[in-house]
Amino acid sequence: MSNLAAQRLAPTQSLRDKALEILRQAIVTGQIAPGELYSATALAKELGVSVSPVREAMLTLVNEGALEAVRNRGFRIPEFTEQDLAEVFDLRLLLEVPSMGRLAGMDLDDAQAELERLVVATEDTVHDATEFLARDRDFHLYLLALRGNARLVDIVRVLRDQTRLYGLGPGANRQLRVEAAREHRELVEKILHGDAAGAEDVMRRHLEHIQQDWYGGTPTATRQGA
After folding, report:
1. Among 7, 3, 2, which residue's Cα sits nearest to residue 18?
2. Model-level pTM greater than 0.70?
3. Where are the domains of the chain?
4. 171-220: pLDDT as tens digits
5. What angle do CA 166, 125, 119 make, to 5 degrees?
6. What does the pLDDT look like over 72-81, one tens digit per residue?
7. Which CATH code for domain 82-223?
8. Does CATH number 3.90.79.10 belong to domain 2-76?
9. CB 89 within 8 A of CB 79
């Protein structure tokens, strides 16, 4: 967790919100690791703030299922099983696939430059698993934000963060990240060309590839005999 010291909280930001942002990112990128115990006091010292906002942020993560409290000891990442992984991807398929189809029917002229920047950011970070995961998260949450539904973004963000609790696994393989970045570009092209069915197909394949190839899970369609 030594990298957290470089992310000291700016005084103009809500300390609790910024602490929450940093801790979420640390879970996503593996800086907060499974099997380790973390105290709000120690993390607050690294961030250069009082304990209260850090503890509040950690309790929020407990409510989201990304951390669990261990009585009188601290916080840790909870056990995340293959069944948990399957349930998360079931929900992500239900939410993200049709959302990409709906985006294809929207006027996104003002978003094209930012979409290109985010796609390039994932392409440029395929050599670094930690950086790629952060940019991948930015890309997908921005796409969902274009729908204008803040609750959708919040739900999927929590689901994505829970997915990372299963560990990176084969996702550390550079070629898998190259393929994921390629699918990002294909997805944006389908959306901007108004191809709703194509956008949904790419998003479905993308999620199934992540579930199966990155995490070793069984895609929903296969489990259901589709």
Report:
1. 7
2. yes
3. 2-76, 82-223
4. 568 899 999 999 999 999 999 999 999 999 999 999 999 988 877 766 65
5. 95
6. 899 998 888 8
7. 1.20.120.530
8. no
9. no
